[in-house]
Write a structure and sequence with these properties.
Length: about 425
C-alpha cells in the first residue's frame, strides 16, 4: 500500500491507516488523512472527484489566515465541514536561514514553539479528530506542504493511539517521497527554485529530535495533553483507540508473483525509497532514498530478474535476482543466484512476506539448475544477519571493501544456502 493517494495538484495526501500498535491492533484505513494544501483543489476536476470519493466529512486547515487568503482554501461543499485552526503563532523566516544551518534542530525548536503557543487550536483539532472517529466519518488535516504543522498533529494523534515513536518518525519522513514533486510545483509557480535549505525535506532527525524534546519537557504525550491542552489524556486516548483501532487481519490472501517489466521501474524506486526511509527512522544507516533510480532497476531486469509480489491486487514486496555478483563474491562459477534488495511494503504486507519472497527467489535459482542461493548484508546490521540465518543461510565470509556503485566501499557479511534439488 502506497500511503500517498495520487492527485494531480496534491503531492502529499496520505492515509494514516495501517500503522500498528505493540498490542497487535492497527489504525483503520480510510478514516484519517494528512495532506498538503487542499487549496490547490478545483471543482470540476478529476482531483475534486477523487477527493469527494474519499467521503471526507471534516477538513482541518492548520495554516495562517493570510496563507489561505493568498493561496486559497478547499472549495466549499455541503458534504464536509471546514475548520481553520492556525496552530503556528510565531511565523519563522526559513528562507533567511544561512546555508550552513542544520534544519533538523532548527525545525524541532519551531515545533516546540507551536506546541507551546498553539494549545487552543491543537485542543480543538484533537476534539474534531475524536468526534470524527467516533462517528466513523473520514477527516483530513493539512497545512501548506503537509509536513511541519501537519506532521506535528499527526505525531500527536498517532502517539495517543499508541503507535511507537519509530513509526511516527517514519510517517513524518514519508514526505521525502513527495519532495521532488513539491519542489517542481513551487519552481513552476514562482519561476525559480526556492533559496532556503531543506525545502520540502522531512529528515527523520527532525521528528526524532522533536519527540525527544517533548518527552524531556513533559514526560510523555499524555502529560503534554493533560497539562497544556487541558484535556483528559487517558480518556481521550481511550476514545481514539476504541474508534480508530481495529484488530489486524488474521487471514491473508496467498501471495502471487509477477516478473517486473520496465514499466514497473518507477514503482520499484518508490518501494526502495520507502524501505530506506523506514530504516533511517529506526536508526539503521544502510539504504538512502534516491540511491537507486529507474535505470538501475531496468538494468537489473536485463541482466537478471526482478519480481513483484502481491496479495490480491495489493503490492506486498519485490526482490532482485542476479546471476553473478563479483563486487561482493568475486569471480565464481555459475553455481548460484544472488538475492538483492529484498523489499516488503511496510505495515500492510501479510506476516512472513519477506520469508515468502526468499522462498520464491530460491525456487527461481533452483529452476536454473544452480545449487546455491547467496546474499550479503551490512556487517553492521546483526539483526538482518540473524533474520537470514533463521531462514537457513549460513555465514561463509566477509567482504571488507564492497563497492556498490556509491564510490564508498563498505563491509558486508556473506551468507549462503544450499538448495534442495
Amino acid at each position: 500500500m502506497d500511503r500517498h493517494i495520487p492527485f494531480d495538484a496534491l503531492h502529499n495526501f496520505r492515509d494514516l491507516g495501517g500503522y500498528t500498535t505493540p498490542d497487535g491492533r492497527r489504525v483503520r484505513p480510510g478514516l484519517l488523512y494528512r495532506a498538503d494544501s487542499l487549496g490547490k483543489l478545483r471543482q470540476g476536476t478529476e482531483d475534486w472527484t477523487r477527493f469527494l470519493s474519499l467521503d471526507v466529512r471534516t477538513v482541518v486547515d492548520l495554516r495562517h489566515p493570510w496563507e489561505i487568503e493568498k493561496r486559497g482554501r478547499v472549495p466549499e461543499d455541503a458534504s464536509f465541514s471546514y475548520h481553520n485552526l492556525s496552530i503556528e503563532h510565531r511565523p519563522y523566516n526559513q528562507p533567511a536561514l544561512p546555508p550552513e544551518l542544520d534544519p533538523g534542530p532548527y525545525l524541532a525548536e519551531r515545533y516546540m514553539e507551536v506546541a507551546e503557543d498553539g494549545t487552543k487550536e491543537l485542543r480543538r483539532a484533537l476534539e474534531l479528530v475524536v468526534a470524527a472517529a467516533e462517528s466513523a466519518e473520514p477527516l483530513v488535516f493539512h497545512c501548506a506542504s503537509g509536513k511541519d504543522r501537519t506532521g506535528q498533529l499527526a505525531a500527536l494523534v498517532l502517539s495517543l493511539l499508541g503507535i511507537p515513536d519509530e513509526t511516527i518518525i517514519e510517517d513524518y519522513s514519508l514526505t521525502e517521497l513527495a519532495t521532488p514533486a513539491m519542489l517542481a510545483a513551487w519552481t513552476a509557480r514562482e519561476g525559480h527554485a526556492p533559496t532556503w535549505l531543506g525545502f520540502g525535506r522531512a529528515p527523520a532527525t527532525v521528528m526524532r529530535t522533536y519527540l525527544a524534546a517533548m518527552n524531556a519537557r513533559y514526560g510523555s504525550t499524555e502529560s503534554y495533553v493533560t497539562r497544556e491542552l487541558s484535556l483528559d489524556a487517558s480518556e481521550l486516548a481511550s476514545r481514539l483507540r476504541t474508534s480508530l483501532l481495529e484488530p489486524r487481519p488474521t487471514t491473508w490472501a496467498p501471495l502471487t508473483y509477477r516478473r517486473a517489466t520496465p514499466a514497473d521501474a518507477r514503482t520499484l524506486v518508490r518501494l526502495r525509497d520507502t524501505a530506506a526511509l523506514r530504516q533511517l527512522a529506526r536508526g539503521i544507516d544502510q539504504w538512502k532514498p534516491g540511491e537507486k533510480d529507474e535505470t538501475h532497476f531496468r538494468t537489473r531486469m536485463q541482466q537478471g530478474e526482478v519480481w513483484l509480489a502481491y496479495a490480491d491486487s495489493h503490492q506486498t514486496g519485490a526482490y532482485e535476482l542476479w546471476w553473478d555478483d563479483p563486487a561482493a563474491w568475486g569471480p565464481r562459477p555459475a553455481d548460484a543466484g544472488y538475492i538483492h534488495r529484498l523489499m516488503t511494503v511496510p505495515h500492510t504486507s501479510p506476516p512472513g512476506t519477506g520469508r515468502h519472497l526468499l522462498t520464491h527467489a530460491e525456487s527461481r535459482i533452483t529452476a536454473q539448475g544452480r545449487p546455491y542461493a547467496r546474499l550479503d548484508c551490512l556487517a553492521s546490521n546483526p539483526r538482518l544477519r540473524t533474520y537470514y540465518e533463521s531462514a537457513g543461510y549460513r555465514v561463509v565470509g566477509e567482504q571488507q571493501a564492497k563497492d556498490g556503485g556509491t564510490g564508498s566501499p563498505y563491509t558486508v557479511t556473506l551468507l549462503e544456502k544450499r538448495l534442495k534439488d
